[in-house]
Write a structure and sequence with these properties.
Largest sheet: 6 strands, antiparallel
Order of helices and strands: HHHEEEEEHE
Number of helices: 4
Strand order of the largest sheet: 5-4-3-2-1-6
Structural class: alpha+beta
Shape: rod-shaped
Distance between the termini: 184 Å
Radius of gyration: 56 Å
Number of strands: 6
Oligomer: single chain
Strand content: 15-25%
Amino acid sequence: MKYIYLLLFTTSLMAADVSKTENEVREYIKLKKEIVHTKNNWDFEKSVLESELKLLKKQKQDLIEKKSKKQAQNSQLKQNLSDRTNENEWYEKRLDQHQQDYNNLNIKLFEISPILPTALRKKVEAYTNSSGRQELSRRLRVGFSLLEEIVKTSQAWHFSRETIKVGQKDILVDILYAGLASAYAMTDDGSKTYTGFVKSNKWIWQEQQSFSSQKRKAIKSFKSQSINQLMLPFAGGFE
């Protein structure tokens, strides 16, 4: 009988232990599931966060590159602007210099025009009257071309038929210019002869009683052959 009670007591204790163990197992399983679930959630969230972090890093790098590129572009724009400003200043200085050259050229042409042969003087007058209608560079080219022609004329014999003023009289004569320094003139019938020289940018004419045969022949030769200009060296005219 004693053993029966002991067995029942032991069995009861074992049943209680089994029941406790089952509860602990269930709690363990539940905790394990929660741990796994939490870990899965964390792994997922970690993956999402890592992806977002990677994306943010890439966006940051893109922004840095864009900023760097923008700074480089701004720097280049500033350099281009500086270069353009320097170019504009250079062109403005060149334009000012050309304008000054043009003004000086016009002054020279204006001063010398009264002593030029008629045909050349008319070309100079046409230039000064119409030059404002052309661009500056073209005006300069034409003006310097006229200067070259004036230089050639100053080194050549050239013939012209003009009216000169001697005293208060206007006289039609044939003129042989020795460059732009001296000239010899004669009426159609050869009865009157004159010499000319430049003073204060105009021709001064004086009647000359003794006129060499060489001068007469030269004037007649130019006139008969319709020669307006002849590039020949001379040394102060005829004796």
